[in-house]
Amino acid sequence: MSTLKASTSQVRIAGVGMHPWGKWGRPFVQYGVHAAREALKDAGIPWTDVDLVVGGETVRNGYAGYVAGSTFAQALGWNGARIATSYAACATGAQALDTARARILAGMSDVALVVGADTTPKGFLAPNAGERWEDPDWLRFRLLGMTNPAYFAMYARRRMDLYGATSEDFAQVKVKNARHGLSNPYARYRKEVAVEDVLGSAVVSDPLHLLDICATSDGAAAVILVSEDYARRIGLSDAVRVAAVSTVTPTFPNTVLDMPMLSTDAGTPGDR
Question: Which CATH class is domain 11-120+217-233?
Fold first, then answer.
């Protein structure tokens, strides 16, 4: 029986970049290229040194979004890098970073560019157009009209019942986020908010108010990850280390019903 051994090498962050978040009405590729170039500039690393491009996929931007790694690599200029594309909804960023980190630790990359970008429609996020009766995520909209705020409101209510959380507790999250946004030039909203402002905003899905809910926005972010050997070669001695990335499934028995499971048994067509 083989034994997996943890690598003693490290993965470092050499540079970061971002495109401001808002509603800009431009193609997502423009945002991603902007963020990528800012990350390269921050790192002081030439584009020709990048040997891996990992794109965070956006399903709302057609074929170019489904192959985001290739899309960004082409837009930046073919340089012979390997490519990969990650999509995991809200966990896309973590999955993309994990992909790049794992390849560096495996010795298959020295300099990885991880870039994610998105454009979003006005209002609540919804599934792409079309009839997909075997798609549980599509079904929860069609059968229940359940948008994301309705789903998270159910989790919020569960937390209140089990742990005594209050609407004021949830409001503090917005207060904290707004405070951090004040000095962030990339933030969409740069205005201080009080608990009373959150609780006084419209109820969208009880107990969540309008200011509890994230606005859908356009923008992009990019990170340059490098191997420790490469960091040493370019004199990067105190860069932030990526110690671990963890995204896992629930374990059996999972007693909390996930959102799509409210409207389907999640089985295959042959099971019914």
Answer: alpha beta
